[in-house]
Specification:
globular; magnesium; alpha/beta; TIM Barrel; 10 helices; eight-stranded parallel β-barrel
Length: 234
């Protein structure tokens, strides 16, 4: 684990101001979201905006990742082709499984050849947000050397369970333990789910410390005000 990924500031892919302002908060990673935070009718414009941002804005002091739409959708296919050609640090793959990662790896290899990029330069961060993803995490991690971290999306997992997150996070103890151990054994980053209340810094600190004790190396931030706390803890 060479790169620092203590804090990952997630931003909507259709917010030009946020894209310009994001580095000011000093996150290790800026994560542009083309999936959940972009409504269907704005997918094309958001994709174009993120591509332009990666091409022309200065992110030399922070790593840039992009969460694409699911690969089995038209938007996911468009995201792969368009965003990969401006060489983000990593693509974040929703609802990831072994077959999806194999497909993404193959597509990236073709694009890197076409663009003259170094082979394997674009990394992958699978999103763990299903019970199947958690139970097959070791297979998922071993699918491709591009996988340099995983992101536990507890909100997605709780949606599958028909349940809700709590601030205490007791419902995540087993899941966090499993993910932390698997990532530590594989030598990759374990990125924890976000803490939803951006006004509760004490709660954020407690949640982040719990994640760190369970082997996580970084955490999603929903707000720039959370970055300093995450950088200090991780």
């Amino acid at each position: 684990m060479i790169k620092r990924r203590r804090s990952l500031l997630i931003l909507s892919g259709n917010s030009p101001k946020s894209m310009q302002d994001a580095p000011v908060f000093d996150p290790d990673v800026v994560l542009f979201d083309l999936e959940e935070r972009v409504v269907p009718q704005e997918k094309d414009s958001a994709r174009h905006l993120v591509k332009e941002a990666l091409s022309f804005l200065d992110y030399s002091k922070t790593e840039v990742m992009v969460r694409i739409n699911p690969l089995d959708t038209e938007d996911g296919q468009k995201d792969m082709d368009s965003i990969s050609r401006v060489k983000p640090g990593a693509l974040v793959i929703p609802k990831a499984n072994h077959e999806v990662i194999k497909q993404v790896d193959s597509i990236l290899t073709t694009i890197e050849n076409e663009e003259g990029f170094p082979q394997g330069g674009i990394e992958l961060i699978p999103v763990l947000e299903t019970a199947l993803g958690i139970e097959t995490i070791n297979t998922l991690i071993e699918t491709s050397p591009r996988v340099t971290g995983v992101w536990l999306n507890a909100e997605g997992l709780m949606d599958e369970f028909g349940s809700k997150r709590t601030k205490e996070g007791d419902e995540l103890r087993y899941v966090r333990g499993r993910v932390g151990i698997a990532c530590r054994a594989a030598g990759i980053h374990a990125i924890d789910t976000c803490f939803a209340d951006s006004n509760d810094n004490e709660g954020l600190e407690k949640d982040a410390l719990t994640a760190k004790r369970m082997g996580f190396t970084g955490k999603l931030a929903l707000d720039g005000r959370q970055i300093d706390t995450l950088n200090a803890i991780f």
